[in-house]
Design a protein that fits this description.
The structure is a homotrimer of 160-residue chains. The first copy, chain A, is an alpha/beta fold. Chain A has one domain: DsrEFH-like (Hypothetical Protein Ychn, Chain: A, 3-Layer(aba) Sandwich), CATH 3.40.1260. Helix content of chain A is 39%, strand content 15%. Chain A contains six helices and five strands; from the N terminus they run E-H-E-H-H-H-E-H-E-H-E. In chain A, helix 1 (15-30) links the parallel strand 1 (5-10) and strand 2. The relative contact order of chain A is 0.26. Chains in contact: A-B, A-C, B-C. Chains A and C meet through helix 1, helix 3 and strand 5 of A and helix 2, helix 5, helix 6 and strand 5 of C.
Chain lengths: 160, 160, 160
């Protein structure tokens, strides 16, 4: 076991939970820890490119619908509570800015710059119909076995 | 400590979160790990028999209501997000099937076959009025002390 | 590593999730474990004094709104599911009492009496505009680095 390794399963795509995950990841990385965030289900959304990407692979009607309805990147995420039909996140963003905190985008960029590893869950991608060319650069692609391998080497493993 | 032991507290009864828990449990079991899923609150629903079971023990009006309103087994679970008044889970089921993934029922059966231990939280059962004869076979029944005993021996402990 | 230490990040302010966190914390403390609950985002609500506290520090309009809309203490928390516009928690409270279980307030008091450490996340407080004089006595105030320091010494770390 290695006390300098942490893993987070980011299952949620809620603004506030993603923010919590990225704050923990950045904090651990700043302390010299090796951090892996395994993004699955709704958590995959933060890894999607915001622009429309033409893909050669045909999607099912359901997958096309998931693709249209689910947010791309961190900018459109809603709050898990008090979302007020979408007004909640902008309010939380403003309050964070007023408090001098980093924005969700800055936290995400900082995590990437600090070397946090983002793994996109391939099973979830297959189900939701997300293709690698639709995802941002610099990701790893793997399944639950890879997560478990990382978690076995870490001393803090969270499911968010 | 034992790197071959994992525990999951399954608090959620949401289709997508139960699916995540079972995928992790199956993956770990397939790698030879000893896995315990401690089902509590809404997570107890997956352990309920789907058929109506006559119980001799009288339930309070509240407990009868909980029993009627909460889903029995894995088939009626809703999504945590984009549930669309119940249409979300069937869509996620179809997308999973299209992708060649295991159904929630197959994942659950596989977990049982691979020897994953399911513990039903007795305090939650007392509160919700669930009786042992209403639950599927092969479960263990215990409280938080048992969970903590398992978690102390495990190297990955998740709350889902 | 120390098998007698546990940490919980309490991110949620839902009645049922707070209850689960406090049951685990009390159980671990009763077994002699050193338990830290790091309260962040909605989880901060349980640490707020229920009475109105005049603060000299001026809040932004957003922070005043957060302060008014978010529950103070444990008594007004809603359920994560089946909340029925607020009727869910009183039903769960009654069912818990009928079953002879401890109330949320008793669980919280017991945790404090057993020496569970509650840390209020200072970043979340800055964002939401919560001031120390608005919080109950006996808390510690710290950020993610303090959490990570505790988690590195613990063998069970949960995100609830």
């Amino acid at each position: 076991m290695d006390t300098t390794k942490k893993t987070i399963i980011l299952f949620s795509g809620d603004f506030d939970k993603v923010m919590a995950a990225l704050i923990i990841a950045n904090g651990a990385a700043a302390m010299g820890d090796d951090v892996t965030i395994f993004c699955t289900f709704w958590g995959l959304n933060i890894l999607r490119k915001t622009e429309k990407v033409p893909t050669e692979v045909k999607k099912t009607a359901l997958q096309s619908m998931f693709g249209r309805m689910m947010p791309k990147g961190t900018k459109k995420l809603g709050l898990s509570k008090m979302n007020f039909a979408g007004a909640g996140s902008p309010m939380m963003r403003k309050a964070t800015k007023d408090a001098g905190g980093m924005s969700l985008e800055e936290l995400f960029d900082s995590a990437l710059e600090q070397g946090v590893t983002f793994i996109a869950c391939t099973l979830s991608m297959d189900i939701l119909g997300f293709k690698e060319e639709e995802m941002i650069d610099g990701l790893e692609y793997a399944g639950v076995a890879a997560y478990l391998g990382e978690a076995d080497e870490a001393n803090v493993n969270l499911f968010i």
